[in-house]
C-alpha cells in the first residue's frame, strides 16, 4: 500500500500499536453499540456535513477537491485504507474496518451518487 519503504515500515509499527485482541475488540464494539444513540446525537451536533466543509474551503479560497491538492479520485479512494496505517490513533476509519463496513462506505463515497463522484464545480469565483 505504501511505495516508500520508510513509510511502509512506519505503517507496520503504527498498525501494530493499535492492534486489539479479540476480547478488546468485542468490548469496544459492545460499548459502542450501547452508547451509540447518545454518541450519534453528539456527533450530529459537532460535525459539519461534507458539502458544508467544501463550501467553507471554497470561501476561504482553499483547495476543496482531491484535484486541488494534486490527487486523482483513484488515489483518494486508495487513501482511505492507507490512512489507517499512518498513526496509531484510533479513527472512524478503524471503526469502519473493524465492523466490516469500510469497503462499503468507501464504495458509497465513490459510487454514482456518492460525495466524491459528484461533479465538483467550485461555487466561488477565483
Could you please describe the fold and organization of this structure?
- With 126 residues, the chain is an all-alpha fold.
- The protein has helices at 5-17, 22-46, 50-59, 73-83, 92-98, 102-110.
- The longest helix is centred in the N-terminal third of the chain and has 25 residues, at 22-46.
- The model is unreliable at 121-126 (pLDDT under 50).
Topology readout:
Blueprint: H1 5-17, H2 22-46, H3 50-59, H4 73-83, H5 92-98, H6 102-110
Number of E strands:
0
* Main sheet summary: none
> Kindly state the mean pLDDT as a whole number?
85
The succession of helices and strands, N to C, reads HHHHHH
Oligomer: single chain
Distance between the termini: 35 Å
Helix content: 55-70%
| Count of discrete alpha- or pi-helical segments spanning 4 or more residues | 6
Q: What radius of gyration results from the CA coordinates? A: 17 Å
Q: What form results from the Cα inertia axes?
A: globular
**Secondary-structure class:** mainly alpha
* Count of separate structural domains: 1
Which residues form runs of ≥5 with pLDDT under 50? 121-126
Please describe the structure with a list of short key phrases separated by commas or semicolons.
mainly alpha; 60% helix; globular; 126 residues
Short description:
The protein is mainly α and 126 residues long. The protein contains six helices and no strands. The protein has one domain.
